[in-house]
Amino acid sequence: MTDSSNEPDIDTTSLTRRDRARRNPARPTAPAKAPRLSRQSNRTEKVVAASTAPHAPHPKTKAKAKPLRSAVILTMVAGLIATVALPAYAATRPTSEALTLQQVSEGDAQSLVVASDATSTALTRGSYDATTAAEITQKKAEEAAAAAAAARAAAAVAATSTATSIPLNVNLTSPGTGEVRWPILNFTKGRGLWDSGYHQGQDLLAPAMTPIYAAAAGVVSISAESVGGYGVGIEIQHVIGGQQVATMYGHMTYGTRQVQVGDSVAAGQLIGFVGSTGSSTANHLHFEVHINGSVVDPWDWLIANAGAL
Prior knowledge:
- By secondary structure, the protein is α+β, with helices and mostly antiparallel strands.
- Among the domains are: about 135-165; about 190-305, Glucose Permease (Domain IIA) (Distorted Sandwich).
- It has helices spanning about 40-50, 60-90, 100-105, 135-165, 300-305; strands at about 190, 200-205, 210-215, 220-225, 230-240, 245-250, 265, 270-275, 285-290, 295.
- Strands 1, 2, 4, 5, 6, 7, 9 and 10 form an 8-stranded antiparallel sheet that branches. It has a two-stranded antiparallel ribbon with strand order 3-8.
């Protein structure tokens, strides 16, 4: 049973009065002060606490970890590059190592077999020399001069042999006494003025070495072994009937010219022999006549002035 003697009296007849229990908040209890330890005990406690507390990384250790991580990443990248690049390099790499020119020549040297009686000659500095550009030019000029001299000598020999082949019984003067003579006898009329293109004369076909005569008296203005397409040719200037007349004789035989530039000739005088030099395909005399600088028909001029043969 409960002892009610200690309980306070309560007025049960009052309806408005209520019993409120007064509640006071509990005051916090101050923590008990730890006993003050000596300095040596405090140090010992710190050491014990540090040994038992969980280990935290040192700031310097964190700083060192970042470069280490970067080094590991770079190592992995380098390994990846090596894995990809090395096979490609191996595929493009030459199969053999580079050799010097001397090594190649030693490996691919050629041998020379000579007769047993062959002797070797040691080259000295004076056994060979170098040629400069000026010396080469001079040598070419000397060779050209020598070739020209040889050509002149050959031409002289040919002229001598041809001159000696001239018949001894030739008539050295064209027959007749007129001022104009026929330049050749015993011929066949060939291509005439303007025939078959640009042809300024009359072709008189005759065997080689047939005598050729001056058509009229005059002075030799051209006499050469090569006069363009005329080959061996001679030109004579005349004054006939008060007009300037020039007669041309082409395709003569080499070395048979009997007159030179500046020589005065008489009508019907021997000046050369028939040939086929220059632009010619057969032995004949190409005869031209120019009056006061204009081309005239040689055949008509001869018929009119020398008469028919």
